[in-house]
Amino acid sequence: MTTAEDKIAQYLQEAHAMELALVRTLQAHGAMTPRGSYRSALDGHLRETRGHADALEHRLRELDRFPSLAERGLGLAQRMAGQLLALGMAPLHLARGGSPEEKLLKNAKDECASEAQEIATYEALEAFAEQVGDERTAALAADIRADEERMLSTLREQLPALAEAVTDAELKGKSSFDVGRTGAAERVRETRRAAGDAARHAVHDAREATGTLSRTQEREEHRQPLPRYDELTVDEVTGRLGDLTPAQLRHVATYERAHKDRRGILEAVERQQEARDREHATA
């Protein structure tokens, strides 16, 4: 015969699997969403969702009902594959089913449906736990349900603006979508920056170790990339980037990161580098 604890464990495991699936969905949707209030909501809820999964796992461990080591290994492999697939599929999703703005609106509607399902799941879990006297599980379900209700409200607030973007893009020909501001594009840029920084540090360390980094070289690394660079505004610097060579663009980025670290300039340099990469690829 099924016991109350068996049923609680079943509901907790179902909720845990649901949260892990939502993590993959939010990763994929965030990868194709430009920066803004909608993306901020997705990023924030992704962090919440991971926390929900951890809290459910903790409760299952307290009940000694968490999956076996073999089951956890399979689940981890599936989650990793799902995360990679989510990020890799983001550009394909954008290419299907109308404008990118339409895809974002569809994503938001799907997310609303997912949140409604989660709310119902946790409301039922809370009620059952209260009926069998499991106050800790009931409190956990109530806390998570409150987060899901807040997210559903936030998503619904985004719908008018997302619908307006579809109207502008598909009926007026005024697209507002910037692929360079999506999560996937930012991940690529972060990787490029990290690789560049690592390479520069490695060269610097190697030179120091062999004693070949002269004072002349040090002065060159800190030389202003443009005349009176430190006095130039962001607009003045970005307006001149198109005339610079690839080496000069790298110099601007290196100098800017070491001194004022102005995001407008660094992002403009990256756009120039990406545009030139595309030109070389099609040449």
What does this structure look like?
With 283 residues, the chain is mostly helical. It has 2 domains: 4-171, Ferritin, core subunit, four-helix bundle (Ferritin), CATH 1.20.1260.10; 179-282, no CATH class. It contains 10 helices and no strands. The protein has helices at 4-31, 37-62, 69-95, 100-131, 135-171, 183-210, 215-221, 234-238, 246-258, 263-282. The protein starts with a helix and ends with a helix. Residues 69-76 and 78-96 have low confidence and may be disordered.
How much of the residues is beta strand, in percent? under 5%
Superfamily at the CATH H level of the largest domain? Ferritin, core subunit, four-helix bundle
Anisotropy-based shape = elongated
Number of strands: 0
The name CATH uses for the topology of the largest domain is Ferritin
N- to C-terminal distance: 71 Å
**Main sheet overview:** none
Mean pLDDT: 80
Gyration radius from CA atoms, angstroms: 25 Å
Low-confidence residue ranges: 69-76, 78-96
Q: Based on helices, strands and strand pairing, what is the structural class?
A: mainly alpha
- The level 1 CATH classification of the largest domain is Mainly Alpha
Total helix count? 10
Q: Give me the strand/helix succession.
A: HHHHHHHHHH
* Shape-level CATH architecture of the largest domain: Up-down Bundle
Quickly count the domains: 2
Helix content: over 70%
